[in-house]
Structure formats: C-alpha cells, structure tokens
Specification:
Layout: H1 9-22, E1 25-28, E2 34-37, H2 43-50, H3 54-62, H4 68-89, H5 95-105
Antiparallel strand pairs: 1-2
Helix pairs in contact: 1-2, 3-4, 4-5
Length: about 130
C-alpha cells in the first residue's frame, strides 16, 4: 500500500492534463474572432511528465490484461487522440501533422501523403497590372 500523500499514476496523469489546460490563454484577433491557445496534449509531453518512455506507455495502453496501469494509459492515449482529432477538425492543426500524431499513438489509420503539400504553385498572372 502506498503511503498517504504519494501521488498515484492516475493523479500524475491528471496533473499533466491539468498543467496543459492551465496554460490556456484567450487570443483576440484583429477580425474580431477569438481563439484559445494552450499547451497541447501530446504523448511526448505525457511521457516527459511521467518520466516514462513513450514506448512503455503505448505498450501498456495496448495491453488488454485489465490492469489499472493499462486502463489508465489507454484512457490517456484516447484523450490525447481526441484532442488531436478535435484540433484537426477545427483546423487548428494541419491534416498531415494530425495524421502523424495519431499514427504515433497507434490509433490513426495510415494515410497516404497529401500530394498538395509536395508541390509549389507559381502563378504568372497580373490581375492588378502592377508589372506595367
């Protein structure tokens, strides 16, 4: 049994998410819109906060043995995945970055690369007549 006051794995994980949430700041844009910027939830951040390698967190999250540790890590991975997906859907996060992060978590599907990101488009039109 753990001595009173020693943080549990669950409390450490919740402390990571709370620390990320505590960095939220409201940003008002010139066009009148408002956005919230905060430290994002990431596997890397959780790994650093817990001082546990990412590979161990993911291995524990994938175990289906019903242990408290595997349940907590699986829940944390799902929470990080949900955060990433929500940011991608609100266009706060690029598609390619979200796909890479979800793949890193092992919960995303392998997506083909977006060919539009690999090309440069040069437009030679001068609709304003500035070149004259």
């Amino acid at each position: 049994m753990k001595p009173t006051g020693e943080p549990t794995l669950e409390s450490k994980i919740e402390a990571y998410f709370a620390a990320c949430d505590a960095t939220a700041e409201r940003i008002e844009h010139k066009n009148g819109s408002v956005s919230i910027r905060q430290t994002p939830y990431t596997l890397t951040g959780l790994s650093d906060h817990l001082d546990i390698p990412q590979s161990e967190i993911l291995a524990a999250a994938r175990r289906e043995d019903g242990s408290a540790e595997s349940v907590l890590f699986a829940k944390a991975a799902r929470r990080i995945g949900r955060y990433i997906l929500e940011r991608a859907l609100t266009e706060e996060l690029q598609y390619s970055v979200a796909a890479k992060l979800l793949d890193e978590l092992g919960i995303g599907e392998k997506l083909p690369p977006d060919e539009r990101e690999k090309r440069i488009l040069i437009v030679l039109e001068d609709p304003n007549g500035w070149s004259e």
